[in-house]
Amino acid sequence: EGRLRLRAFPHGGIAFYYRYSLDGKQAQVRIDKDNLTGARAKAAEYASLYRAGHRDLHTYLAQVQAEDDARREAGQREREAKARQGTLAQLLDSYTADMDRRGKTSAKEVRGSLKLNVLTPFPDLVAKSAKDIQPTDVSAILRHCLTRPVASKGRGARLTKARATSGKKRHAGELRAYLRAALGFGLGLGLDPLRAADAVLFGLSTNPVRDVPTIEGANRAETWALTKDELRQILLAIEDLPERHRAIAKTMLYLAGQRTEMLCRVTWNDFYDDDEHGSVMQLLDLKGGKNTPARIPLLPMTTRLGEVMAPLLILQGTGAPGPFSLRGDRTATPGTLQGIFSAMGDQLAEQGKTRRFTWRHMRATCETHLASLGVNQERRAWLLSHGRSGVQAKHYDRYSYLPEKRSDLEKWARYLDQLVSGEARSNVVPLHAGA
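Given the sequence above, the corresponding structure tokens read:
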């Protein structure tokens, strides 16, 4: 059965060993204990193994140790792999952070939609590994988006009462697109050779959104155009707004419906005098696909536009970062500018003067009325910075089109002024013309 051996060293240290017989020779295994009680217990354990037939105890213990080490390493690798396989919440956060890095203007909107429709109402689901998300989970998220109560906006005295709209299908369709893009983003991370090997991966092999049917009716256009009489009522109602609201709303219309995101990026450095074309306002258009460089549309400051913007331009040098400021200390947000027209749409609809409209309908109205004035599609695209397709238009055409834009803006300003004065009252604009 072997025996316990104690060895004492000249310097005062001691060591315990279990000595046993192997093929007629003495062999021993060191016992990793520093007291007699522990050494006796370990020696008894080794004796039991020896009696059980493990005669070459040293080799057997080495094999057991190797197997234990292998199990520990496998467990560690499994834990590390699991830690790198992020949750759905981590994936959605990584996706929106990537949108921020790429300068996508829709990042804030996407983040808000995911928080409202996914992160907040489904805490257990977003805590799951992204690779475990199933098409049924995506369907549950979209169903919640379609059936949840409409969220109120603002807070306190500024709280806007929730009102059901026909845009729920469109919102659900957008949410489906966001989820498909986010899960597609996670699907590609594991294959990216530029990504660090120890970075968080999501283990996706398929995109579960792909198997979820699209929302029927989600892409139905809601951009009908207001008539001349309705547009006149809006122009008259603008005159009753507070001064800064009035100046901003008129500017938005006299600029023919530029995107509010671009207007809110305008600073005082974006106004300058061009030797050939006179005073110019520079915009920054960040809308575009992946790796698409920003466009810098230029708009001529016509005489009438300068008159309309005069209350805004006097803020220069007062501390305001740009002209589109309601309080004079910071630039308004795109939602705030759009809210001016949403509130006006509610008010005029209740008075029976117009249909209920938003800034989206105003943009469609501006472009539709421009078309009725003879401004062709290509010139409207130059003026309103619509997407340009084709190699020639995207990469080689660097002309500013300022003379054409000046002519069209002057024609548009005369048209609006005539609506206000009553000279242009013939109602020839179709009710449901698209933008």
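The beta strands are 3-8, 14-22, 25-31, 271-274, 278-282, 298-300. Try to locate this feature in the token string yourself.
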